[in-house]
Amino acid sequence: MTRPEIEVRGLHKSFGDNEVLRGIDLEIGQGEVVCVIGPSGSGKSTLLRCVNLLEEPTEGQVFVGGTEVTDPDVDIDAVRRRIGMVFQQFNLFPHLDVTGNLTLPQRRVLGRDRATAARIAAENLARVGLAEKADAYPASLSGGQQQRVAIARALAMGPEVMLFDEPTSALDPELVGDVLAVMRRLAREGMTMMVVTHEMTFAREVADRVVFMDGGVVVEDGSPERVIGDPQHERTRHFLSRLLDPAMAEVEEETSDQAGKDEP
Ligand SMILES: Nc1ncnc2c1ncn2[C@@H]1O[C@H](COP(=O)(O)OP(=O)(O)OP(=O)(O)O)[C@@H](O)[C@H]1O
Ligand SMILES: [Mg+2]
After folding, report:
1. In this predicted model, what pLDDT tens digit does every residue of 9-44 receive, in sequence order?
2. Which of 42, 108, 188, 208 could bridge 213 with an S-S bond, Cβ 3.0-4.6 Å?
């Protein structure tokens, strides 16, 4: 691996008595794509949010591009500028057209002048295949198009790394493909990406590594072939069987309930 672009060391995060992250160690190299999978509540979003300091870790360190972002003296705004984040909900400004959505943060946060911001907005809209929607308002776009605008908005800030938190989970199935295609292209262009997703086909095809989390720890970390294709831990197998075939998992559960009842 080249020098880690993202490095997480001994990361813990508690909300009150609830310890959500229980010691996470993770390195993501420059240009690497890491998909994070795991059951609901396992701490995937909290991990992403700790990487860009939307949450303050209780313990441990996070480095991005060699800078310790958990250093109390760090310039948080400078750190956040280097990290693009895309959420399940697109969070576009409804009262601004697409160009406005892309230029506002560039002008406010980076101090770019109107013309430069507009040029960079146009470049990034083209990158996500939405050049023709520059003047559209979010309400007139499909969910998939809105999510691609949100990706373009993040890219327009020139981030070194991109974090995605279930970017396709809120979309109708027929709109998922366009968003994944944009992410696939970004990966090919060499963007460092950390992607929380349930899209196993995407993870298999695009990820360099898959990280399986459960109960606030990393249970498995390896190539997609290994973690998805040949999981070493029962917890991973159980999660994957549920995901790939929910009906089967229910049968399994009933059988194991039954087995439980037979025990003394
Ligand atoms: N701001 C918060 N305050 C209190 N508890 C929180 C907060 N954010 C998350 N939690 C708790 O932390 C745990 C992990 O949440 P997190 O959102 O990281 O899980 P997740 O793996 O992303 O789940 P999902 O797949 O449902 O998105 C949950 O028990 C959640 O209730
Ligand atoms: Mg989540």
Report:
1. 999 999 999 999 999 999 999 999 999 999 999 999
2. 42
Q: Give me 81's structure tokens.
A: 């500028």
Question: Tell me, which fold does domain 1-75+181-246 have in CATH?
Answer: Rossmann fold (3.40.50)
Phi/psi class of residue 214: alpha, beta or left (left: φ > 0; alpha: ψ in -120 to 50)? beta
- Measured by CA distance, the residue closest to atom 17 of ligand 1 is 45
Query: What pLDDT shows up at residue 261?
Result: 46
Number of H helices, E strands in the chain: 10, 10
Taking the CA of residue 42 as reference, the ligand 1 atom at the shortest distance is 21
* Phi, psi for residue 74 in degrees, rounded to 5: -70, 150
Which residues does residue 37 pair with via DSSP β-bridges, in sequence order? 212
Nearest ligand to residue 38 Cα: 1
The alpha carbon of 78 and the centre of ligand 1 are apart by a number of angstroms equal to: 26
* DSSP H stretches of helix in the chain: 44-51, 76-81, 98-110, 114-127, 143-155, 173-188, 200-206, 224-227, 234-244, 246-262
- Asked if 166 and 88 touch (Cβ cutoff 8 Å), the reply is yes
Atom of ligand 1 nearest to the CA of 47: 18
Spatial distance between the Cα atoms of 180 and 153, rounded to a whole number of angstroms: 16
DSSP 215: T
CB of 45 closer than 6 angstroms to any ligand 1 atom? yes
Question: Is the shortest distance between the CB of 43 and ligand 1 below 6 Å?
Answer: yes
* CA–centroid distance, residue 217 to ligand 2 (Å): 15
